[in-house]
């Protein structure tokens, strides 16, 4: 792996010469508070450029019995996946679609999207993408019932810290990876999306990666590229259609007794918006007898005592618009990113401790190149239980219908050490919170 040096900087200079106000736009995304010096980026090149060899392979769940496989090739290749439960023995095959996108002078490779199934739960499948000469991958489907373990990381990026975070997660026996926004930090430099896909492939090809978008996925440039989320939507197709959503930016799914909702901080969320109406309908359909836990992921946190990212509409206005919906539905936990530090709140509603409100957890400390947000408001409010500016990852082990354990691990710590840990009781099992 080599170091990325000056790729984005040179691109910004070109735009500046053209007389555009792009740097102003970009700085608005990055925010202007002081950060510690960033760690160096890593760039993962293609092993076989120009070929039809599959790269950037990642999987995502599609309903209870299906899995989506996405990958990219530099040259045309069939959108076909062969798979089976034994190495080298592919009893079944599935065919999907191929697409591509353009972004300024960049043109993506062939993006392949194939849905496999029906699949058995908690089972290892071996698969091969595209041509018969391609390498063999394997993945394990999530369990159909408790227990289930989620690995959760926000603001991942592709730095030396990212590599450390991914290495820690690779040593954990987890069932699903969830990411509340800010994936590649490509920030309009499209080859960095390809590098990110190659960097995460070892993990993303083995367990489903379920993601939502952050501000670094917007990639909208005045005049030159007026459509937002072009690369994100093309590369990371989530199961929004299956949940009745009209946008890849917000969706939901069920897995092993947990109803997971991915919300979009950077699309309309007011009460007249499509996202609000969808969320209201989605929450109304939840059967707590079948999915006793509800977990929500957003990018911009609604609760935050860090000095970073204060006063932003995506936090304040979205909270004002949607907090009542989550509270009335007795959502158990809300995970957010955006702030490059870790913070856990008590159960909270309307800025006060409330035993029937969600636990809000900020985990935007995956490994981004901007550094950590190390300055907090003091004194620490009572609703903020634990906060620390360190890189790390979290694990949510949902043991059964009533209890789950959340732990957060610093990258510096031995994996046996939980830097922050708490046992949660589902609100659906609390008589005092019954609606």
UniProtKB/TrEMBL annotation:
Its cofactor is Fe cation; Zn(2+). InterPro entries: Calcineurin-like_PHP, Metallo-depent_PP-like, MPP_PAP, PAPs-like, PAPs_C, PAPs_N, Purple_acid_Pase-like_N. The chain crosses the membrane at residues 6-30. It catalyses: a phosphate monoester + H2O = an alcohol + phosphate. Residues 54-141 form the Purple acid phosphatase N-terminal domain. Residues 149-342 form the Calcineurin-like phosphoesterase domain. Pfam families: Metallophos, Metallophos_C, Pur_ac_phosph_N. Keywords: Glycoprotein, Hydrolase, Membrane, Signal, Transmembrane, Transmembrane helix, Zinc. Residues 357-415 form the Purple acid phosphatase C-terminal domain. Its EC number is 3.1.3.2. Belongs to the metallophosphoesterase superfamily. Purple acid phosphatase family. PANTHER family: ACID PHOSPHATASE RELATED, PURPLE ACID PHOSPHATASE. This is Purple acid phosphatase. It comes from Prunus mume (Japanese apricot). The gene is LOC103339699.
């Amino acid at each position: 792996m080599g170091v990325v040096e000056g790729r984005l900087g040179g691109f910004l200079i070109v735009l500046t010469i053209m007389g555009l106000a792009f740097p102003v736009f970009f700085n608005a995304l990055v925010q202007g508070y002081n950060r510690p010096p960033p760690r160096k980026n890593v760039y993962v090149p293609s092993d076989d450029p120009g070929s039809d060899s599959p790269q950037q392979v990642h999987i995502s769940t599609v309903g209870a019995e299906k899995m989506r496989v996405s990958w990219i090739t530099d040259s045309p290749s069939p959108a076909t996946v062969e798979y089976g439960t034994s190495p080298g023995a592919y009893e079944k095959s599935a065919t999907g679609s191929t697409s591509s996108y353009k972004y300024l002078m960049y043109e993506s490779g062939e993006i392949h999207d194939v849905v496999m199934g029906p699949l058995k739960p908690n089972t290892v499948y071996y698969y091969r993408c595209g041509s018969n000469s391609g390498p063999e991958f394997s993945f394990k489907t999530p369990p159909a019932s408790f227990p289930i373990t989620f690995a959760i990381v926000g603001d991942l990026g592709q730095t030396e810290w990212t590599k450390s975070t991914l290495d820690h997660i690779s040593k954990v026996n987890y069932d699903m990876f969830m990411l509340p926004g800010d994936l590649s930090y490509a920030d309009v430099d499209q080859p960095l999306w390809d590098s990110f896909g190659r960097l995460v492939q070892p993990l993303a090809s083995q367990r489903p990666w379920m993601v939502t978008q952050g501000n670094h996925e917007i990639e909208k440039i005045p005049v030159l590229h007026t459509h937002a989320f072009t690369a994100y939507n093309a590369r990371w197709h989530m199961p929004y259609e299956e949940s009745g959503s009209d946008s890849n930016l917000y969706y939901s799914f069920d897995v092993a007794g947990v109803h997971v909702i991915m919300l979009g901080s950077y699309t309309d969320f007011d009460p007249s918006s499509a996202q609000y109406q969808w969320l209201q309908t989605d929450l109304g359909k939840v059967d707590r007898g079948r999915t006793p836990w509800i977990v929500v992921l957003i990018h911009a946190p609604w609760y935050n005592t860090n000095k970073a990212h204060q006063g932003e509409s995506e936090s304040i206005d979205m909270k004002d618009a949607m907090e009542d919906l989550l509270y009335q539905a007795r959502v158990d936990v809300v995970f957010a990113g955006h702030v490059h530090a870790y913070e856990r709140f008590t159960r909270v509603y309307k800025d006060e401790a409330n035993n029937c409100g969600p636990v809000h957890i900020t985990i935007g400390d995956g490994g981004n190149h901007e550094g950590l947000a190390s300055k907090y408001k003091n004194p620490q409010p009572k609703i903020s239980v634990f906060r620390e500016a360190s890189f790390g990852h979290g694990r949510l082990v949902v043991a059964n219908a009533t209890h789950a354990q959340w732990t957060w691990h610093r990258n510096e710590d031995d994996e046996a050490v939980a830097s922050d840990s708490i046992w949660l009781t589902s609100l659906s099992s609390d008589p005092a919170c019954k609606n």
